[in-house]
Amino acid sequence: MRAKTTAYGILLVLCVPFVFPTWWMVTSSLKPNADIFGRSLWPSHVSFAAWHDVFTMQPFARQYLNSAYIAVVVTLGTLVVASMAGYAFARIRFRGQNALFLVVLSGLLIPSEVTIVPLFRIFNSLGLIDTHWPLILVPIFGAPSVLATFIMRQFFITLPVELEEAARMDGLTRAAIFRRIALPLARPALGAVAIFTFLTSWNLYLEPIVYLSSKSMFTLPQALTQFTDPYQGQLWNVQLSAASMTAIPVLIVFVIAQRQFIEGLAHTGLKG
Amino acid sequence: MTRAIKRQDRLTAYAFIAPQLAGTVAFVLIPLVLVAWYSLHEWNVLANTFTFSGVDNYRQLAEDPTVPRVLRATLLFSAGLVIVNLSLALLLAVLLNQKLRGTTVFRVLFFSPVVVSLVAWTIVWRFMLQDNGGINSFLDAVGLDGPNWLRSGGTAMAAVIVVQVLKNVGLNMVLFLAALQGVPPELYEAARTDGANAWTVFRRITLPLISPTILLTSIITVVGSLQVFAQIAVLTEGGPGTSTTVLVYYLYQQAFQFHAFGYGATLSVLLFLIVLALTVVQWQLRKRWVFHES
């Protein structure tokens, strides 16, 4: 009994640094600017002025849309590319299979930070700077999707061969077997890949600040840091309002589907 | 299977891997070769100059007085992150493994920062770590005088590490929890019958049995720590001085703020070699140290 109480006590104390920042972010964003550094855990009177300022200081709705559509396109693209490649590497015998798999795996070994300088030059010479193309093309086809391909391959390897052999008897082609049999069975793996791909894209910071320069093209992480007064002073309540709007929708989805999120993310090895 | 079907299968396979293969070549392998090539050039985007300079950039790398400081900050950050992250993850996992009611709720709470937008999380911490921010005003309330966390070298590094650990420790916690639940309960019972105390059981039974997971998480965490950028850029901008300027941040400064792309490419080569060396070392460790492979 006593040990149990101690365990609960420790857990509750340890929770504070994990939960308090999110609480503080939302409540401080609702405080008038004069009280922003106050100690009260709840605003003395709730003010949505800063939430409104977020939209007048920057094209925030547009930036929100940018982040959302890029993350959705990247997620869908990655699912297609990675499930096809993962399936082929797992299930079909073809010449050069191992060598080609090693070529693809090199993407796991080379952090995208290493290649940012040449990629910038390539996209610059293609005239694609200050467009969203680098933020869409590189994650779908480049290093970030290799991890997804690897995960899909590991999953398809575990599928029983008998299912596919039966379909083969019925005269289905390989592509049809993939689409009608393997893919529907791969839903858990696809879900995990979708969650981590979406979050990775949603969080991307280095690439947007390297490639994008006009405010209407910005993504959310990049926009969040831009709420300053003309003297570069931080407008804390506006920043925290924008940060809350960025964080809350994902948190809500997380609370609803916490099991899928936790298992999916932990076992796909999102970078620590 | 008939020859025709085999042939058709093969063609399907090549079509299926083509996008990923082409992408890897175009966005990973060719850029990797280019980065090595650029590192042999003096290249200024603003002045629009690109001239072969041999090993000049590498000489600059060896003589740059900032580089040792950057490497020290990188080492300090990575080591601190791995130690704090793995210890805390293990502690949380052990606590959650006590079969208490409500562990699901705690698991969700500890995990929640993982899904909070990285920059949003960093911004709220920057806000709380201001000299007059939330943390110091709570310290003040209990009669303590907190430092200006982000403005002095030691506390700035500690802050960057702790903020990053809190963000992602939930991932390692879940992996450890799964590993702990995989330890056969008979082993614990046998040890207790032999009169071993809780600490001995943990050290002699639990730790060796979860060592594959410890190695796996340390690999993921070390490699991830070398890629940390947004946290540094938002919290400290590498400061004060260069005390939190890790390699990726220095690379970004040189290439994209000072427009020294050739030197930035040289720093990228250095980053690549460090990641490569770490991977090789960890594969060797895996062979020797790990108790069993799961």
Automatic annotation (TrEMBL), chain A:
Record-linked InterPro entries: MetI-like, MetI-like_sf
Record membrane topology: Multi-pass membrane protein
TM region positions: 7-26, 68-90, 99-120, 132-152, 189-206, 236-257
PROSITE patterns linked: ABC_TM1 (PS50928)
Gene3D superfamilies, A to Z: MetI-like (1.10.3720.10)
UniProt keyword Membrane present: yes
Record keywords: Cell membrane, Membrane, Transmembrane, Transmembrane helix, Transport
ABC transmembrane type-1 domain sequence ranges: 64-257
Localization per record: Cell membrane
UniProt record similarity statement: Belongs to the binding-protein-dependent transport system permease family.
Name under which the protein is recorded: Sn-glycerol-3-phosphate transport system permease protein UgpE
Gene name per UniProt: ugpE_1
From TrEMBL, chain B:
Principal location listed in the UniProt entry: membrane
Keywords: Cell membrane, Membrane, Transmembrane, Transmembrane helix, Transport
Pfam families: BPD_transp_1 (PF00528)
Keyword Cell membrane: yes
Keyword Transmembrane helix in record: yes
Membrane topology recorded in Swiss-Prot or TrEMBL: Multi-pass membrane protein
Domain spans labelled ABC transmembrane type-1: 71-282
InterPro entries linked to this entry: ABC_transporter_permease, MetI-like, MetI-like_sf
TM region(s), chain numbering: 12-38, 75-96, 108-129, 149-166, 213-236, 256-281
Compartments (UniProt record): Cell membrane
Family: Belongs to the binding-protein-dependent transport system permease family.
Designated name of the protein: Sugar ABC transporter permease
Record organism: Paractinoplanes durhamensis
